[in-house]
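Give me the fold.
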Amino acid sequence: MENYQYFREMFYASHYLPIALYDGDRFVCSSGFYEEGDPYPFVFPKLTERKSPAIYVSSDTGYYGYVKCGDGQHSFVFGPAYSTPVTEEFIRTYIRKNAISPTRHEEISSFLSNIPQYTYNRFLNLLLFLHFTLTGEELNIDQAFGITDTQFQEVIAQRHSRQSYQEREDHRQHGTYQFEQQMLAMIRNGEVEQLERFFLAAANLPTVQEGKLAETPLRQAKNIFIGWATMVGKDAAIPGGLDIEQTYQLIDTYIQECEKQQTEDAIKNLQYNMPMDFARRVAQQKMPMGVSKEVYSCMQYIAAHINEPIQAENVVAFSGMSRAYLFKRFQQELGMGISAYITQCRMREAKSLLRFTDKSLGEISSYLCFSSQSHFQNVFKRYSGITPAAYRRKYDEH
């Protein structure tokens, strides 16, 4: 028993992931929680009904893991853990679900925010490691958690057959493929005006019929939007030359915004604006014709490190090519040198920060690695013709 308690203490001290020790179904002690007492009154039964190691995922309260000890009597429960940062909305839900007084909001917020983030796979591997440590048994993810179980394929096949039959009987077929391909081509080419005309013309087409993705109209609209955002980003924006990481971040932002909406009208508005936004960004960052894979790879590298003190030599080192050769390729393909392209990217990012955030000039200057605020202002004016402050005022007035 003392060894298990020591294990609990050392695990929490090294991982900062809440942990509780049980003797059979009796709670013994815990580390990392905001109060004493059994921290898993609702989660524990859901875990112990499965073989060890086990995972339980709650959309409201996070991941939980269960590992039985080698003596067959004691066990540990781990969690909650999360794959994304804890938001204010999540904190309120956690408090409500666990019947905690709202007066303890600050305390609970601190507790949840200090728990390290785990992706689903990383959490599974942690449970496998703990299972091996506590029992000596070696398992892989499939043996322990059955992630390659083909049962789902059988269930989906049955549902698909029934649904296909019914939709044929009702003369109801998907009619979006050609529409989607036309839309993606316009976004890929950065054709903003053509895309707008295309959307207006397609608004009343009866052939554009979406499939059933949910049981409620609001969830249906959200699911369709999520599919659209992912498709637009990966199949149009990135092939069109938009920075890969910027695209993924923008997909995430739009999906998060979609989940906040409470009406179909709001989501439909978002569904129109999202592809238009991607098309504009592609048009602004359109990769010139004839750019080689080598130079494009360097462009992506620069975009991903724009808030670091990156210089031409860093790009040369990344490319693996000689300095003279890479400089020549940049000049031939982009019409500018590497240093000039880095500055151009920083100016594009500066404009975005000035227009869409309230960051001070000093914060933007520091973020983009300028030696001083005055240096940033001078470079910005040289590239844009106006000062950063004037640029911001121009958009504040609209």
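The CA atoms of residues 355 and 394 lie 9 Å apart.
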